[in-house]
Amino acid sequence: MNIDISAKEYSVIFSKKGFNYLNNIVKNSNYSKVFLHVDNNTKKYCLDHFLKQTNLKNLELIESKDGEENKNINSCLSLWDLISSLGGDRKSLVINLGGGVVTDMGGFIASTFKRGIDYINVPTTLLSMVDASVGGKTGIDFGILKNQIGTFYDPKLVIVDPFFLNTLPKEELLSGYAEVFKHSMINDNNQFNELIIKKEISFDHQTIYKSILVKNEIVLKDKKEIKERKSLNYGHTIGHAIESLFLNTNKKLLHGEAISIGIISETYISSKLFNFPENKLKSIKSHLNSLYKKVEINELEIYDIIDLLKHDKKNSHGKVNFILLEDIGKPVYDKQVPKDLIIESLKYYLS
Ligand SMILES: NC(=O)c1ccc[n+]([C@@H]2O[C@H](COP(=O)([O-])OP(=O)(O)OC[C@H]3O[C@@H](n4cnc5c(N)ncnc54)[C@H](O)[C@@H]3O)[C@@H](O)[C@H]2O)c1
Fold first, then answer.
1. Is 195's C-beta closer than 6 angstroms to any atom of ligand 1?
2. Ligand 1 neighbourhood includes 101 CB (under 6 angstroms)
3. What confidence score (pLDDT) does residue 156 get?
4. Alpha helices in the chain (DSSP H)
5. What global pTM score does this model have?
6. Is there an atom of ligand 1 within 6 Å of 128 CB?
7. Domains of the chain, with CATH numbers?
8. Which atom of ligand 1 is nearest to 104's Cα?
């Protein structure tokens, strides 16, 4: 078996090869039970393909409700309860078939059940393929605050099959694209230039592969997010605050929609504090604005966003720490930004 991407403790393997690898793992590992974690959509759209690609028998299906609003402790309680009542023990395996909500939450319940059981991710959204399912971060939201509770816990394997994207709604594909684009911005000019000139976005094997490589290389350098891994949060300080603010409201945004606003604002801040090139800032704004709908943010909401920054997971000693860029591929870490400049950056997005 040749591995597509090696993440040291586990492998990321594409399509049929990945499913064969999964069959072998299950055959050779003597698991007491294999739980297949789906949500209502992946049960409908992805389960059939998954079952056809594997020869796994006697799977126990465990289902959670789709959506970020369900990535919480109540869903975990139901999942632990299900696993327990179906006879799960320390030698059980959880396979997560779904987007980032399923892989984050499924990874979290696996990492804590009986102090940790094996799990495998089979991402079915672009976002979970290039980002959420790799890197070993698991977690859930706490109230409206994103990813506040979680663990570092590696999967045994990640299987990436772009076939699943055929049923994914276009806006969800676009949501994942924000992370593909962010990876290019923190990586190098070649990848960035390739993307920024595109009017039509494609989500082929190569684009996905290159994007995972960026994340994987960074995680290999700094798994616990002491330094380099923080760069993966580019656009996310402001992006997460916006996503949290509108969660459970009629202005609810997809993760990537919020992150694209975060990228524009934080690139503006980068241009003011670290001379990020103006011409690239302008192309980034116009590229992202051509893909995502414009979100209206009023004066009051701007202050709410600033307030929510207090809860960002990169904060320490009461300070909000931003990742900024001197240029494409040149991150600077743990920078504090004056409140007025944050306000100005959101106004730049709105202009
Ligand atoms: N752990 C990490 O490192 C990491 C990194 C980035 C993002 N995340 C997390 O990922 C989550 C977002 O993930 P997401 O964008 O995949 O959202 P998601 O899991 O909510 O999936 C989006 C929607 O698409 C549906 N769906 C999934 N696959 C489908 C398919 N193939 N066909 C049709 N419908 C399908 C889902 O049911 C859901 O309704 C956020 O919670 C974010 O915090 C985690």
1. no
2. yes
3. 96
4. 15-29, 40-45, 47-53, 73-85, 100-112, 126-127, 170-187, 189-196, 205-221, 236-246, 255-274, 278-291, 299-308, 339-350
5. 0.93
6. yes
7. 5-167 (3.40.50.1970), 174-198+221-350 (1.20.1090.10)
8. 1
